[in-house]
Request: fold
Amino acid sequence: MKRRREDDPRRILVIRLSAMGDVLLVTPLIRMLKNRFPRTEIDFLVKQHFEPLLRYNRHLHRVLTLSPERGFSGFWGILRRIREEEYDRVVDVQVNIRSTLFRFLSGVRERVRCKTNRWKRFLLVRLKLDVYGRGKPIPLRYLDSVSQWGVVDDGLGLELEVEEEVERSLSLDLKRRGMKRGERIVALAPGAGRATKRWLAEGFAEVGCYFGRKGNRVVLVGGEGDQEVCGEVARRMDPPPWDFAGELSLQETAALLSKSEILVSNDTGVMHVGSALGKPVVAIFGPTTHHLGFVPFRTSSIVVEKTLSCRPCSYHGTDKCPKGHFRCMKEIRSMDVIRAVEELLRKE
Reply:
């Protein structure tokens, strides 16, 4: 058995409270820390809703959960637990008010935080001055924050483990719905947290119709907030898709995507779920660009986008197009996406 060196930390806490895609983007960092410190216990602090994304991560010792609905008492309860655990090091990946408070009040001497590149983002989004150069994907920016500890890139991608019982249950559900042996699943994720990050519903419907008529089983995935847009896509489709929006847990969504041949998604958390499962991903980008670091990470992928002088216009998307024309999404045609899907399927 490999023994821990005396100068290695006993315990490390990684903090990333939300959201779905952002939590998954930390999984390479967890693995790389464990590679560097194999005898060190690594814990992770996350909001309770996103705990299923890390529940079966083999590199973690424990997942601590914050319940936002408990308010101040929940915050102090978690802080007391952090102080009791006596961590040797803390890595703050979130770098917001709450994570900063956890970091500084933890009682841990060796604390690091990830660089947010706020000034680079400001220059790019507001003044269209690109000082990113080639730019780095977010997981590699996280790695930079712990490079002084000798943590190195292992060349692998995101990670997400699906529980076997969830996978079996999902398989039975698909069979009850009429899934045929050997039938290929094409998954569409038309939703997103902000309106400008959503490609047009008619575009998704046209893509779904095209692959549905070619004998594929088209499914729609998303959370409760995506039910309206997924419903609109479903109403426009013939043959109709199986609409799972708002019906599946995070683990069940991952199980469904693990059975899919390919995922077509907006720039949203579901896109990173597909990446973490090693699935081919066609990602549709409107107000955001690769400079910000959120493109599919180390999986077979194609980003469909239009080159416009007004892009990127925001960091996380907005409720309305700042210019009023929404060209970044309206100019993406269904055939642009269909060709990208067919190209990835040929490679697979």
